Amino acid sequence: AALEYLRNGTQRARMGNRHTTFxxxxxxxxxxxxxxxxxxxxxxxxxxALLTVAGGAIEGVDGWQAAAGRKSSESSLDAAxxxxxxxxxxxxxxxxxxxxxVIAAPVLDGLELADxxxxxxxxxxxxxxxxEVGHMxxxxxxxxxxxxxPVPIRxxxxxxxxxxxxxxxxxxxxxxxxxxLVAAGITGMGPPDQVEEQAHA
Length: 201
Known about the structure:
By secondary structure, the chain is α+β, with helices and mostly antiparallel strands. The chain has helices spanning 2-8, 44-54, 67-72, 74-85, 90-100, 110-114, 117-121, 163-170, 175-183, 192-199, and strands at residues 25-29, 36-40, 103-107, 125-130, 134-139.
């Protein structure tokens, strides 16, 4: 939406999980407590594959064979799919749909995401070592841009850990000037009370 506005000046209305062209394209409740599945059909072939997996359980499909028909009655389409997925085990359904060639994925909560193998393989969940906390798992950006490598994830800094780096590399300060700031208690390693102690040591 942001890129569309910057390029064309078009302010897109709220769409939720829907797509401008494809349908179905949404999040649907499955059996169990807060179990949801993401399903998208970008082609008529994928839609027919979804119907095959459903085995006739999705009602009202006569006008939905083509993408235009599905998009024009998207609310009814979503309701029909939701009625079917509500009785399905999420993970089993994901496997069946993906095997059939339909775009599908589980909607994961935080605990599930922490154990998700694909999140690690894609570099979304990374291991970080912190000098005080130790080993941690941290989320990286899920976005990937062609021609550029992902920005490496670093652990949270300690108090003043990068002060020398910032003052010298970005502000062009000499080591003598920086040492004078440390001596005055203006900067240094550690929380403010420790910096003050260092200045008067």
